[in-house]
Predict the structure of Regulatory protein, Fis family.
Amino acid sequence: MTDEHKARLLIVDDEEDMLEGLRRLLGYEMPHVAVDTASRPSQAVARVEQELYDVVLLDIRMPEMDGMEVLAALRRKDPWLTVVMMTAYGSIETAVEAIKKGAYDFVTKPFDRQALIRVLEKAMERNRLIRENLHLRRRAEGKPPFEQFVGQSAPMRSLYERIQAVARTDYAVLIRGESGTGKELVARAVHSLSRRGQRPLISINCPAIPEHLLESELFGHKKGAFTGADRDHRGIFEEAHSGTLFLDEIADIPVNVQTKLLRALQEGEIKPLGDVKARKVDVRILSSTNQDLEEKIRDRTFREDLFYRLNVVTIRTPALREIPEDIPLLATHFVRMACEELGVSVKRFSESALEALMGRDWPGNVRQLQNVVRQAVMFSPEDVIRAEDLRRLETGFGGNVGGGRKAAGGPGDGRVVPYKDAKERVVEEFTSRYVRDLLERTEGNVSRAAEMSGLTRAALQKIMRRYGIRSEDYRAFSNHSRA
């Protein structure tokens, strides 16, 4: 192992013989560690300022500067530094003082060789965990709070301001808005900006969990509480303790679970299924819905008292039709994302294409716009995506790409197509068109088409068989075109 890949240890002691003895001992016993030495406190402080050390082994008695002073100076240079103190004066009072001032551990002279190695190995591991967590935290903190939001319109600026104001409190927040308007992004922003930002954010999609399992998922259960409960299970309330719980699509929670959720919010405690004891929890609640909760209260399918518990503060996410001036910014942002996802050269929209996007209806909001942009990047042959490329996409997909109202409602005669059927139809049309376009581009070369699409050859052939697509048809087409 080269020195650049080794952990780094700095030994600080004013006795040269001690330094040399420890350097040899630890170099032999810990070959995975690069050992440096410093005989003066000022030299140690300078080294820590210039280099990143995993552990410092520091003598507590030195003439130039007291070891406690050196400890403080080192931690000012690197607050996350792991320091082990060593001394011939092994009193408990000295050990406690050193640890109170930030030392990780304490060893006494003369050393027990194996005890010293164990302490240093534990210190190395502790340092590794701290540095990893610090790195992750800095990566998260280095991102602007609204990095994933795009838009500078007045409604979006108002949204940013409201998120920041709400984040400073611990109130329950109800996030309301149409599907595809970024309600989950709002929840994540509120959490990350709050005092709980370094604690867990646990999300649960309420309609995705069967009713008979939802209570167990929320509150947990004891072994034997019901058939199949073969072990204790911690609910998401406990998982989110000291953090934030995001209940997505809260309107779909059954009334019987609403009652137990209300009790948990009122009492600040939960009782797992099959348990006789309640457990205290400290959780901030964020919830979201795209439904009319007031109407559901009138229909007695949503508890009014729960509504007021959840709706201490409301945040509304604007629909895309309310912020048309942000569509060029969004489309440009999604183009960059799609190009990265697909591994293609950077593309951009022409002015006419952006105007076309701004002039459309978007019932699926930002999520629908992103899907259209992905398709435009995928199927547009040039680096500039033009309005005619968007029209060609509409033609290829039966007019449903781009968000006319027919896409949500059905064939155009006012009849509402069931969601599952409409989704299957769009997916089939997309898949068929995608594969045909691939084969046109590769002149029927299935291997090359599979490579371009990221599919295996076998998977692509399976799709072709399903839709009755033959590669030879595209080879013939290409030969005919060249003729």
